[in-house]
Specification:
The chain is mainly α. The protein has helices spanning 9-16, 20-43, 47-72, 80-91, 99-112, 131-142, 145-159, 166-188, 194-218, 229-232, 240-245, 254-259, 268-277, 290-296; strands spanning 129-130, 298-299.
Amino acid sequence: MNLREILTPEEFQSVTASSDLRGAWLVVCQWAIVVAIFAVAAHWPNPVTILLAVWLLGGRQLGFGVLVHECGHRSLFRTQRLNELVGDWLVAPPTFNNVRAYMRGHLHHHRLAGTHDDPDLPNYRDYPITRARLRRKLLRDLSGRTGLRTLRGIGRGFANLRTLSPESRASLLRGGAVNALMLGIMALAGTPWLYLLWVTAFIFANPLISRIRQVAEHGAVPDLYDTDPRRNTRTLRAGWLARLVFCPHQVNYHLEHHLLASVPIYRLRRLHRLLEAKGFYAGVRFPTSYWELLRQVTFRDAAPAAA
């Protein structure tokens, strides 16, 4: 689908232009929110602030993943070098991510979305599912089973460090260094226990948040096997609280991202509004909350009702 036939040259330029200032602002805001969450928990340590911190940190861990995605697409900043530098050192290490390994699979998803060869299909092809089955999936995440599996994988990586490829070894060591730095700063501040909130969020909150985000993007769409992104991908219009947790950095505009992957994430909202004003989304339905989304991707009975 060629958006150049829909947008004017000026509009196309306005949504595809990367900005180093905008990219840097997203990275600064991402880290500033993380620091603020830790500061509130340290200043007012009680069950409510601790629970809230864990939940919000899980959303921020997703935020780091979103920025990894942007750096991988080389759209967060204007130059490839800056995208690589920020991706490798500022946004991938906190969650032990590997920008290059992630993008190798992700680019196949973009190329094959809407087909039976999409490598991400196992994550959402069964939707809609029963509400009971969704509850089991979310409880598995919330109980820590999903997160602990990821954590064990990181541990195995360190145990077998010498056998890893140079790329994987470097990525894992950067993750260890940045996490050690986080712990060290917290220890110097007299609050080393704060790092436990980060680990707890990684195990219990982030898997559930990431699953809901993933389902929102492609689960129970009008036609998963139609190559038109309007049929196989979803954008969700989210309020400020949902943006804080489930869709940081405008990642809820996923349809727009599939329409034109070169659009920086901070311009996806503008692209959405331009296309909507031109009638491009006629007949397309956008959920306005994640509660609505979860109702849309589930059903009560053991089998979907007839259309």
